[in-house]
Amino acid sequence: MEVEAASSRHMSDASVADGSPDAKRELFEFFGWVFHLGVNTIGHEFCHLRFLYIRGKYVEMYKRDPHENPGVKPIRRGVISPSFMVEDLGRRKVNDGDAYAIRFYNRQDERKKGEIACATAGEAQKWMDAFDHAKQQAVYELSNSGNARDKLNVEIEINLEGHRPRVRRYAQELKKLIRIGQGPETLLRLSSYLSDRYFHSNVGDAIEANNWKCFHTINGTRIFEDIADSKAGKGVLVKAVVVIEASVDTVFEVILNLERSRRYEWDTFSGDLELIDSYDGHYDVLYGTFEPKCLTRWNSRKDFVFSRQWFRAQDGTYTIIQLPAVHKKRPVRSGYKRITVNPSTWEIRAINMPMGMGTDKCLVTQMMEIQSAKWCKWKNGRCSKFEKTVPYALLCQVSGLKEYVEANPALKSEISVIISQAKASDMSGSNSDYEDSNEAVDKFYDALSADSYSSEESDDEENDEKVGKVRLKNDSWAMSGMNLKKSVVDAHRELDPHATPISINPSHFRGSLAKGQDDSDTNCWSSPGGSGFMIRGKDYLRDNSKVKGSDPLLQLIGVDWLKVEEKLDGVALHPKSLVQSEPGKKLPFILIVNLQIPAKPNYSLVFYYASDRPVNKTSLLGKFIDGTDAFRDARFKLIPSIIEGYWMVKRAVRTKACLLGKSVTCNYLRQDNFLEIDVDIGSSSVARRVIGLVLGYVTSIVVDLAILVEAKEEAELPEYILGMVRLNRLRPDSAVQLGD
Question: Where does the secretion signal sit in this chain (predicted)?
């Protein structure tokens, strides 16, 4: 049976980018089939196939597609409130298949909540973005109309738990949509429908602090060696790189799939895998067996245990981390030799194609660590022995993956999406507080390294939708061509030009974490310049050009490294805080960033940044300080860069800019002369996993963090770095209680 399914957005005829009061705001509509998950009144779990419809701030759920059945009424209906929150729950079993779950709830009333599941992680992210856009619409109406405030108080908020309320159908004059795709049958085959037109993924990756040299090729796959640390005497990093004509979601699903019949077609090493345990939707432990007949004349059976963690970045890139593991459910097996699998990662990144080309492409990289002594022996043997090793078999997985995906076009069609666009609807008001869906795609890396760049980048060309010209996508070439111009902070634009700057004496402020004197110091902080980061230049909206950052606008005056029993909010209000000291009260403005780290015990890493003059209230920083939480969430940006540390941690953290308000819960406290931002890292299961990995190596990590307010409009460019900090090999046992 073929069922209609579609997704669309309704666009206004007028531009919304100028932020003028008369501009028309876009009204978006998203709809498609999802699984509704929950627990019924007698405590039994249920999983129902439902049609979900989001129009503006309204959400409706149907048993049947309303486009095919115009008379059908929604079984649930409600509005998205400004306190609406969404959390990615990751991968879980749904109807004997793997799906990706999303939880949403009201931050002020967690009784109003619900869960849905989607076919792929990419689809789940699109639904999360759709809910976020509906939340922005609710905030917009609330802040621009007193009537809207009264209306929101009487409208029923969406709630997918408990009994279904009796509802009236609010939608009138359903617009004619294009019949596309398949219906619930396709979702049951792990497919769903959402438009890709609204969701522009950021192409681009962190510039790696490596010096890669291609030493071998096989079946179109290049194998690289990192020669940057060849003299360090540690493990050698090796990677295999290939371009696959498929979407990132397709490749990601193939790699994670444990079905033996499918895995036998591409994986010569780990075709026999068994799931031992699964945790929080983003982590599992696997057991595998291997008979290396093709590698040695000795028929010695081997087995292994390893863990997998996976993350999806805001730019759509997937990272899968694989580490050797031990599990009590799988002790050493009789007749098998237990081997330790090399630590490795998969990275799957989309390649933007020219307009008009319907083919998806992605760059797939598998990286692993090999012992230096063994690697040198294999190299000296001209790779003849290397081709008989387990690491070589692992690297060949990339080549097998490419051939398998391209030989099975049905894999691509399972999650292909057809786009339709319907009639425009208008809504007046400004859009300056919200993220611009037509924003130019970032083309360059956000953190730099002094090492030479990777040679793996594709030379594909891409059409620029905004300027209508072909732009070279080779990041390394583009960077060298523009000579890495530097961004200069215009302090007069952000700070009050008429005020006399005060002198800030760092010795008057002392946090619990010491300030380092030189690079050899440990368990300390310092404040480096911003030249290691790429930020948006003056012409970014026209040509996507980025420039090197300069010195930060705000001065870092102290850092607290705290251990707490419960999550710590409102650090600035504590009587022992730097903000409440006499010198702190005299400062024109202080920005406090409180990174709340979930662990046992919990930690808070608190940064205090000060200005020497009052903030210009009409500037971007002034709008951020006194703006709405929705505006702050859409603009608060952090760029991490691990200067020194274990390579696996670098791959997990990456060096791409992240809008923190889109990934984790951020709470804002604006009082007196300060703004405090409490970043709840534990609010995201993905962030919890990444920070857990970082904490395991924190004593050997040197990391730089750059804090920015993202510029989205011409008048706000060029960007500048708001604050910087370098953390040098922190010791968890040195954290103190606040006030000690």
Answer: none
